[in-house]
Amino acid sequence: MTLGLAAASAMMVACNQKDSTPTAASPATETTTAANPDIVYVNSDSLLANYEYFKDVRSRLQKKAEQKEKDLRTQAESFQKEVQRFQQNAPTMTQQQAQATEQRLMQKQQQLQALQQSSGNELMTEESEEMNKIYDRVEEYLKQLSTEQGYKMVLTYQRGNSAILYGDSTLDVTKEVVDALNKTYESEKAEADKKKEAEKKK
């Protein structure tokens, strides 16, 4: 998942900071800067691999896709049996009966194809919506974290697809982000479970 942050701009900012003339700083200033870097990054691969909300969403969508595939396969097999019966009975049918059955089967085939396409589109739309929700959750927390820690920019790192070729491990806040997101999600799940139990008792 791409977190949509301007990595190239961040690298330019970092370069500008390196090239600027250094000024004398007190030990206290150096300590503050080291403890609170302006730029940090999140490993998006690790984020998705460890974020419980994403894992639950992926599992739910996968089950839904498998069920839709199973339903479509059942309907396709039923259709194939109808075609076979028609082929077996065709010699004994009148021309009018054969034409009517053939037309009905063609319409059914078109309906199955349309159903298959609509099911695929529905899953793609739902997946896109869920990824947007994940993006919103991560972005909301990163805004909060940046305000608290004084970060000027949070970059995203993904192996093989990133503008960050190297980043010091002390700038990696992935674990902190994942832990906070999972803590929030656990609270949300617990609250949702309580509501379900309350509704059952009514």
Automatic annotation (TrEMBL):
Coiled-coil blocks: 58-144, 171-202
GO BP term, pick one: protein stabilization
Domain of life (superkingdom): Bacteria
Swiss-Prot/TrEMBL keywords: Coiled coil, Signal
InterPro entries, per database record: Chaperone_Skp (IPR005632), Skp_dom_sf (IPR024930)
Pfam families: OmpH (PF03938)
GO molecular function annotations of the record: unfolded protein binding
SUPFAM superfamilies (alphabetical): OmpH-like
A single Gene Ontology CC term: cytosol
Keyword Disulfide bond in record: no
Family: Belongs to the Skp family.
Name recorded for this polypeptide: Periplasmic chaperone for outer membrane proteins Skp
